[in-house]
Design goal:
Chain A is mainly alpha-helical. Chain A has three helices and no strands. Chain A is elongated, with a radius of gyration of 16 Å. Chain B is mostly helical. In chain B, helix 6 runs antiparallel to helix 7 and helix 8 runs antiparallel to helix 9. The chains are: A mainly alpha, B mainly alpha.
C-alpha cells in the first residue's frame, strides 16, 4: 500500500514536471494554458491519491480534494483562455486549428 | 428536495472537515504544548548558561500557558500577544475600504461595470462551486487556531466567492446594507471582547475563556471567537470593495 502510494506520487511529480516544462517551452498563452492545466490536473490527482494510499486515514480527504480539483481546474483555465481570446491576444503562427 | 440534498451535503462536508483533523493528525497527543518552539522560547532560562535547562526555572510573568493552548503558534502571536496590533490592522483595512468607497462616491460613477456576456461554463459551475468556496472560507477562519490560516485569509476567500458571483453574471448585486451591518457588528464585537478582557482580567484583549485541550475545535480561549469576528469583518469589507468596483445597476 505504502509503495503503491509512493509510485503514484512519483507519477504525479513527473506530470507536474512536464506541466512546468510545457509552460516554459510552449509558444503562446493558449498552448501554455493547455500544458499547465492538463498536466497539473493529472499530476495533482496522482499525488493526492498517492498520499491517500500511503496514509490511509487521509484517503477520504484526498478523494474530496481530487473531486474539487476536477471541478475547479478545467473551469479556471477555460475562463482564462476565454478572457485571453476576448482580449485579442494573438496566437503564434505555429498555432492553428485542427 | 434539491435544497434538502444540498443542505445535507453541506452539513456532511462541514462535519467531515471539522472532525477529520483530530482523528487524522492527533494534535492533542503528539504535538504537546511543552514541545512547541514558542513556549520553549518564552520559558527558556536566562539564569543558567545552558539554554536547554529546565524551563520551569524562569517564570515569564506568572502565566503558565501563555499561548492559550492554540495549536497554531502564529495565531497565538497574532491574536494572542499582539491582539492590539491586529485591532489596528483591522482598522487599517476598514479605512482602506472607506477610502475606496469615498473615491467611487466622489467620481459619481454609479453605472454597473459592463462585463462581457457571462461565460456559460463559469455561470453553470459557479452554482456548484460557490457553496464549496464559502464553506472553505468559513473553515479557514474557524480553524485559525488549529491550522494555517485565519480571519484575514478566510475573509478574503469569501470575498473571492462574491467576486465569482459577479463574474458569473446573473445580475447579482451584493446587499450593501447587510454587508455594512455585518462589518459594524463584527468590529464592535472585537472591541467588546477586548473590553470584557479588561473587565475580567484587568488587561485589554486578554484571554478570559478556558483554554481547553490543545488541538480541539473549542480550545485556545478567546482566539477562535476573535478570528471568527475578524473573518466576518474582512469578508464583509472586501465584498463591499468588490461591489463598489462593480458599480450599481
Amino acid at each position: 500500500m505504502h509503495t503503491a502510494g509512493q509510485i503514484f506520487i512519483l507519477i504525479g511529480t513527473f506530470f507536474m514536471f512536464l506541466g512546468g516544462l510545457g509552460v516554459f517551452r510552449m509558444p503562446d498563452v493558449y498552448n501554455r494554458l493547455q500544458a499547465g492545466t492538463k498536466a497539473t490536473t493529472l499530476g495533482f490527482m496522482s499525488i493526492a491519491l498517492g498520499v491517500g494510499l500511503s496514509q490511509p486515514q487521509w484517503l477520504l480527504k484526498a478523494l474530496v480534494l481530487i473531486a474539487f480539483i476536477a471541478f475547479t481546474n478545467p473551469v479556471s483555465s477555460s475562463v482564462l483562455a476565454r478572457a485571453a481570446m476576448k482580449r485579442g491576444i494573438p496566437a503564434r503562427k505555429v498555432t492553428r486549428h485542427d | 428536495m434539491k435544497k434538502v440534498i444540498a443542505l445535507l451535503l453541506f452539513l456532511g462536508l462541514l462535519f467531515f472537515l471539522g472532525t477529520g483533523l483530530e482523528q487524522g493528525l492527533k494534535l492533542g497527543d503528539r504535538n504537546t504544548l511543552a514541545g512547541k518552539a514558542g513556549e520553549a522560547y518564552l520559558k527558556r532560562t536566562v539564569n543558567s548558561a545552558d539554554p536547554s535547562a529546565s524551563p520551569s526555572q524562569v517564570e515569564y510573568g506568572s502565566e503558565t500557558d501563555i499561548e492559550e493552548n492554540a495549536a497554531n503558534t502564529l495565531t497565538a502571536v497574532v491574536v494572542g500577544y499582539r491582539s492590539f496590533d491586529t485591532l489596528g490592522e483591522v482598522t487599517v483595512l476598514f479605512l482602506a475600504a472607506t477610502g475606496v468607497m469615498a473615491l467611487f462616491f466622489a467620481s459619481g460613477k454609479k453605472k454597473r461595470l459592463a462585463l462581457a456576456k457571462p461565460n456559460f461554463i463559469l455561470s453553470v459551475s459557479s452554482g456548484f462551486l460557490l457553496p464549496l468556496i464559502i464553506l472553505f472560507g468559513a473553515y479557514v477562519f474557524t480553524h485559525g487556531h488549529l491550522t494555517p490560516g485565519g480571519g484575514f485569509q478566510g475573509g478574503t476567500i469569501i470575498a473571492a466567492a462574491v467576486l465569482l458571483l459577479y463574474m458569473a453574471g446573473n445580475a447579482y448585486k451584493a446587499p450593501a446594507t447587510g454587508l455594512k451591518v455585518l462589518e459594524g457588528f463584527s468590529g464592535a464585537g472585537y472591541l467588546l471582547i477586548g473590553l470584557a478582557g479588561l473587565l475580567l482580567t484587568g488587561f485589554f484583549l486578554n484571554n478570559f475563556l478556558p483554554s481547553g485541550k490543545m488541538g480541539a475545535l473549542f480550545s485556545a480561549g478567546v482566539i477562535p471567537v476573535v478570528y471568527i469576528l475578524i473573518g466576518l469583518k474582512v469578508s464583509a469589507e472586501l465584498s463591499g470593495i468588490v461591489s463598489d468596483y462593480m458599480g450599481e445597476d
